[in-house]
């Protein structure tokens, strides 16, 4: 009798394991392939060889890249090189990426940037690093390291003031093994946190894996990408900085970072059509890239357009797409970066 019970329990455990593996494959879009959508005027950006995970562009055309991300389980083309911040002036006739010097005293050897956001101030072991860009010297002055118990696994931030920001925690745990266990079990413990020097609080929760985050041009709405749920959440921002969910846009891809066109309010998204290829890297079958443009997201039927798609032959693992004055920058988790004239 005891043996029969043991066999029965083993059978149930194996069935649950199989169900979880199948569910994870579906969430990673393991069987999806992409049809190429090419842009005619594109070239790879010289000097970016090992990832440009996030990009943010100032109104004056200065683009900032966070580069060199290393994450447990992901491939790296430069595993021994620390991360950095690059800048490109999109108003130049032939823009090129330049690495910015960071002020002395900052631990550059352990720098592993994941997500970047800029805020214009006319006055001036998961952490958020706050820098001041000194344009005259093309350098970064390190101002502050932000640590807090409500920020255990920060993925991305969107700045709403000097040292004020919303941040996504893509997991509840900071330990890599527990992160993957959390993902495997699909616990929906990820959240969005509002941080200021005077107050830190959870303002939205219940995400599968909260990833990219950005704010509408009128500062009324916060957009959050839930990468494993294949969704973009539209959250209304209130005067007390709390958020309430307004709507959810479902997509057929893993949505990573979100960029906003300040002139139109369109959302540009770097996506992973087949997320499993990110974690099981095969140079003969590399991760694909996909860029979506979302227009009128507040309407009943937003317009979703595939602007660019590639099977990995040119660009692998697109994580962000940012536009400025007819120019498009596409960054990746650990590969190259693309500059296009639209």
TrEMBL record:
Modifications after synthesis and translation: Glycosylated.
Entry's Gene Ontology cellular component terms: extracellular region; membrane
Cofactor: Ca(2+)
Leading EC class: hydrolase
Keyword Glycoprotein among record annotations: yes
Active-site feature positions: 114
Membrane-topology descriptor: Peripheral membrane protein
Catalytic reactions of this protein: an N-acyl-L-homoserine lactone + H2O = an N-acyl-L-homoserine + H(+); a phenyl acetate + H2O = a phenol + acetate + H(+)
InterPro entries referenced in this protein's UniProt entry, alphabetically: 6-blade_b-propeller_TolB-like, Arylesterase, Paraoxonase2, Serum_paraoxonase/arylesterase
Signal peptide segment: none
Pfam short name (any one): Arylesterase
Protein location: Membrane
Disulphides: 42-340
Main location: membrane
A GO biological process held by the record: lactone catabolic process
Binding residues annotated for Ca(2+) 1, in chain numbering: 53, 116, 155-156, 211, 256-257
Transmembrane segments: none
EC numbers: 3.1.1.2
Keyword set, alphabetical order: Calcium, Disulfide bond, Glycoprotein, Hydrolase, Membrane, Metal-binding, Signal
Any one GO molecular-function label of the UniProt entry: acyl-L-homoserine-lactone lactonohydrolase activity
Cofactor descriptive note: Binds 2 calcium ions per subunit.
PANTHER family attached to this UniProt entry: PARAOXONASE, SERUM PARAOXONASE_ARYLESTERASE 2
Assembly information from the UniProt record: Homotrimer.
Family recorded in the similarity comment: Belongs to the paraoxonase family.
Name of the featured protein: Paraoxonase
Lineage: Eukaryota, Metazoa, Chordata, Craniata, Vertebrata
């Amino acid at each position: 009798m005891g043996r029969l019970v043991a066999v029965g329990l083993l059978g149930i455990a194996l069935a649950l394991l199989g169900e979880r593996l199948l569910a994870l494959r579906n969430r990673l879009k393991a069987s999806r392939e992409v049809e190429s959508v090419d842009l005619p005027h594109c070239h790879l950006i010289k000097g970016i060889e090992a990832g440009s995970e996030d990009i943010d562009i100032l109104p004056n055309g200065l683009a900032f890249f966070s580069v060199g991300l290393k994450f447990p389980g992901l491939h790296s083309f430069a595993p021994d090189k620390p991360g950095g911040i690059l800048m490109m002036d999109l108003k130049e006739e032939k823009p090129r990426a330049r690495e910015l010097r960071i002020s002395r005293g900052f631990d550059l050897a352990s720098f592993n940037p994941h997500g970047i956001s800029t805020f214009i101030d006319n006055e001036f072991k998961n952490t958020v690093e706050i820098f001041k860009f000194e344009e005259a010297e093309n350098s970064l002055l390190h101002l502050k390291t932000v640590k807090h118990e409500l920020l255990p696994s920060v993925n991305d931030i969107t700045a709403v003031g000097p040292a004020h920001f919303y941040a996504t925690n893509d997991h509840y745990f900071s330990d890599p093994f527990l992160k993957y266990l959390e993902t495997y079990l699909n616990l929906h413990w990820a959240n969005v946190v509002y941080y200021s020097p005077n107050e830190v609080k959870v303002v939205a929760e219940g995400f599968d894996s909260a990833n990219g985050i950005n704010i509408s041009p009128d500062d009324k709405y916060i957009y959050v990408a839930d990468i494993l749920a294949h969704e973009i959440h539209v959250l209304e921002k209130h005067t007390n900085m709390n958020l309430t969910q307004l709507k959810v846009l479902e997509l057929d891809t893993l949505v990573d970072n979100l960029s906003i066109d300040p002139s139109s309010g369109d959302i540009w998204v770097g996506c992973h059509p087949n997320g499993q290829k990110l974690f099981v890297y095969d140079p003969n079958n590399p991760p694909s890239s996909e860029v979506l443009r979302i227009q009128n997201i507040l309407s009943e039927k937003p317009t979703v357009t595939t602007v660019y798609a590639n099977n990995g032959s040119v660009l692998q693992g697109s994580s962000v797409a940012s536009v400025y004055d007819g120019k498009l920058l596409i960054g990746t988790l650990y590969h190259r970066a693309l500059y296009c004239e639209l």
